[in-house]
Design goal:
GO biological process, one term: response to other organism
Organism: Sesamum calycinum
Radius of gyration: 36 Å
InterPro entries: Leu-rich_rpt (IPR001611), Leu-rich_rpt_typical-subtyp (IPR003591), LRR_dom_sf (IPR032675), LRR_N_plant-typ (IPR013210), RLP_Defense (IPR053038)
Low-confidence stretches: 1-31
Keywords: Leucine-rich repeat, Membrane, Repeat, Signal, Transmembrane, Transmembrane helix
Mean pLDDT: 93
Number of helices: 5
Shape: globular
Subcellular location: Membrane
């Protein structure tokens, strides 16, 4: 056997020495790696894991923890936990703070409970903490303010309570703060105005109180401020209307009061969405708001605003959604507003608006989808040009003084779903006795609601009513001076839920085709001249809850099959010529709350079963020939 030379032995020894240095970590490295490993195992031990869950199977000692699912490492140190959307349950272990190199913690969209450990404040490198959409409780730890590198803090959609710690204002690098959809109380700390780099500020959907701090006006980089649905009071500080980077401001559903500054809009060149609805704001709408030229959404509904809509609003050429319902706005809608071709939704209900609509309205608004004009004082005709706004899905013009004929070309609105013209002075085409506009409405294949009540239409319902949309759920023309009969074709409206034709001059018999209206829950035919016997076809409508047939000329008996209408809650057969006994099973309709059989010629003995109508609030049997003696069967 040949022996090794001394030189070869030295070289071998040196190679082995360098091998040891480069392949075995120091004692301190072993210790820190072990700390991360132990912290991960402690984190896992606080979770309630199913045996086949990914953390139960993947997080094991057979592989280095840097290869575990959701664990991100740098130089064999844990810098990220990315475990979003795994349906994790259990609690957040305080040992997570022992992973001192953590930069990101993303545990969003799980079902973690318990509290946020105050030890998180020891994570000096942490930049992202995202635990949104869990079931966390307790308070926001004051110690979090020690995470000086934090850029994103998202605690939204939990059950976190208590006040917002004043100490959070120390985050000098924070860009994203989301604590919305929790149970936070108290005031917004003025210190939150120190976030010089903050871009997103979400505090909405909590129980915060008090005035909005003036200091929020110092958020020079903020693009979104959302304080919606809290209990803030007092005036809106002028300072927040001077943040030039602001794109979205949502202060809706609070108790804010006072006037809007006249200069509103002058210093908001980036503003796209402004939500001030559901407050107590008074005064006029500032004309300077028209300077916010990028504005797409403006919500002013449910305040105490008065005065006119500024003519200058026609300069908002990017406006898509404008609503100012339930205020005290008066005057006309500026014609300039109808020149905004981008406008999609206009809601003006419950104000004191007046005047005519522009003749060419539909030609100027090619993108209009919804227009709500109800409960104002508009007059004049509904412009026929409205039929050119072919993207329209909702047209609501009820409770005004519109006059003239119903536009004949409504069928051009092929996307129309809701049409409400009730309580106006609209009439039928004077050259026809038929309601010819029904022929056009046949083309509106998405129509679901057609409401025409309280207009002097004075016409005959055409057979084309049966060709209306198969999606039609509501058809009402109460108090419209309708005449003629109810067309047999009405039975084609298989989706109909509500039929209201009361207080007209309809004649003839109720068509047997009602048997096809299997989704009809409410029928109002009171106050007409309908005759014949009450059709038994009503009995096949199993969902029928309200049946009003009073003040007609029905004769004969109450159908025996009425006892099968087990969902019936109201029935009125008053003021007809019915001359039978009441079927015994009628008194077993236990859901009935209101019964009116008065002013007929009904007779017989009222049975003890009358007491089965335990839900009844109103029962009128006046002016019949009933025996007052109660007896058992």
């Amino acid at each position: 056997m040949l022996s090794k030379s001394p030189a070869l032995s030295i070289i071998s020894s040196l190679c082995f020495f360098w091998f040891l240095i480069f392949n075995f970590p120091s004692c301190s490295a072993l210790e820190t790696n072990a700390t991360d490993y132990e912290a991960l195992m402690a984190f896992k031990s606080h979770l309630l894991l199913q045996q086949d869950s990914i953390l139960a199977t993947n997080w094991s000692s057979t592989a280095h923890f840097c290869s575990w699912f959701g664990v991100k490492c740098l130089n064999k140190r844990v810098i990220g936990l990315q475990l979003s959307g795994l349906a994790l349950q259990g609690q957040l272990s305080s040992d997570i703070a022992n992973m001192s190199h953590l930069v990101e913690i993303d545990l969003s969209s799980n079902d973690l409970g318990g509290v946020l450990p105050s030890e998180l404040g020891f994570l000096q490198r942490l930049r992202v903490l995202n635990v949104t959409k869990n079931s966390l409780q307790g308070r926001i730890p004051e110690n979090l303010s020690r995470c000086g590198e934090l850029q994103e803090l998202d605690l939204s959609y939990n059950f976190i309570a208590g006040s917002i710690p004043e100490e959070l204002g120390r985050f000098s690098n924070l860009r994203h703060l989301a604590v919305d959809h929790n149970n936070l109380t108290g005031r917004i700390p003025a210190s939150l105005g120190n976030f010089s780099k903050l871009e997103y500020f979400y505090l909405h959907e909590n129980d915060l109180v008090g005035e909005i701090p003036v200091e929020l006006g110092k958020l020079a980089s903020v693009t979104v401020i959302a304080l919606r649905n809290n209990n803030h009071t007092g005036s809106i500080p002028d300072s927040i209307f001077n943040i030039s980077t602001m794109q979205v401001m949502d202060l809706s559903i609070n108790g804010l009061s006072g006037r809007l500054p006249e200069s509103l809009g002058s210093h908001l060149p980036s503003l796209q969405r402004l939500f001030l609805d559901s407050n107590r704001i008074t005064g006029r709408i500032p004309a300077f708001l028209s300077n916010a030229s990028k504005l797409t959404h403006l919500f002013l509904t449910e305040n105490d605003l008065s005065g006119n809509i500024p003519d200058e609003f026609g300069e908002l050429q990017n406006l898509e959604w404008f609503e100012f319902e339930y205020n005290q706005i008066s005057g006309g809608i500026p014609y300039s507003l109808f020149n905004i071709t981008s406008l999609e939704i206009l809601k003006t209900r419950h104000n004191y608006l007046s005047g005519d609509l522009p003749h060419d309205l539909g030609n100027w608004l090619p993108n209009l989808q919804e227009i709500f004009l109800s409960h104002n004082q508009f007059s004049g005709e509904i412009p026929p040009s409205i039929c050119n706004a072919t993207k329209l899905t909702s047209l609501e013009a009820s409770n005004n003084s519109f006059n003239g004929p119903v536009p004949m070309m409504l069928g051009n609105l092929v996307e129309l779903e809701h049409l409400n013209l009730q309580v106006n002075l609209l009439v039928n085409n004077p050259l026809s006795t038929r309601l010819d506009f029904f022929d056009s409405l046949v083309n509106c294949r998405n129509l679901q609601y057609l409401v025409l009540d309280s207009n002097p239409l004075n016409g005959i319902i055409p057979d084309s009513v049966g060709n209306l949309s198969s999606n039609l759920k509501v058809l009402t023309a109460i108090s419209c001076k309708l005449k003629g009969g109810i067309p047999h074709s009405i039975g084609n409206l298989s989706s109909l839920n509500f039929l209201g034709l009361s207080n007209n001059n309809l004649q003839g018999k109720v068509p047997s085709s009602f048997a096809g209206l299997q989704n009809l829950e409410r029928i109002y035919l009171t106050g007409n001249k309908l005759e014949g016997t009450i059709p038994t076809e009503f009995c096949s409508i199993q969902v029928l809850g309200i049946l009003h047939l009073g003040e007609n000329s029905f004769s004969g008996s109450i159908p025996l099959c009425f006892q099968n209408l087990t969902e019936l809650r109201e029935i009125s057969l008053a003021a007809n010529s019915l001359n039978s006994i009441v079927p015994l099973g009628f008194w077993d309709l236990v859901k009935v709350e209101g019964v009116n059989l008065s002013r007929n010629q009904l007779h017989g003995t009222l049975p003890m079963e009358l007491g089965n109508l335990k839900a009844v609030n109103i029962m009128d049997l006046f002016s019949n020939n009933f025996s007052v003696k109660f007896q058992t069967r």
